[in-house]
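Run log, item B.
One chain of 237 residues. Sequence copied directly from the ordering sheet:
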Amino acid sequence: MTTTLITGANKGLGHETARRLIAAGHTVYLGSRDAARGQRAAERLGARGIQLDITDDASVRAAVKTVEADGGLDVLINNAGIQAEMRDDGVVVIDAAELTADVMRKTFETNVFGTVRVLHAFLPLLRRSAAPVVVNVSSGLASLSRVTAVGTPTHAYPGVAYPASKAAVNMVTVQYAKAFPNMRINAVEPGFTETDLNANTGIQSVEQGAEIIVRMAQVGSDGPTGGYFDAEGVLPW
């Protein structure tokens, strides 16, 4: 039995990923900052709800103890993230002219430092697994090649903090994959998906967006590592 933990999974892409992996036979821990919401979502899916605020050391440590006591972990999906530069209606209001260190810090605290916090804490459990897998949910906005391609939606995106944070996640992915060659550690781009992260302005469903997350969560020991993928294949850095 494969045991999987998904952060930020009480709704959106994380929730759909949990549903699909449960259907595939995984035992899924559904991580949620809000314990009550997470538990309700877990009950709907047949998952195990676990309180997990990736910005809080004590919360992460408690989650590790719970998962360890239940038998360990095989797959970690770092899905939780924020887009602090976007207004509630999906309009980016904090561009390069408006960016402050506080906005950058807030974004990195969740998207980068939170991801590293969870990775570091769960590494001992993953290293005990016979087939450990890590999936870091990134973004097409993390691709320097895409963001510099004039005339594309990624080039038109005016925000700084979110793309920078996801580019950092990509680098974390590569360096961790090099450090732990026995693990399959990859970054994925779900696509512009209709979720609360972008005020539901996305152009595809969560079912479509979760496809690459689910696929990379199930890679075998001979699968890729240190890569950056969307549903169509390898993405340019």
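Observations after the first pass:
- The chain has a mean pLDDT of 93.
- The longest strand covers residues 27-32.
Flagged for discussion on Thursday.
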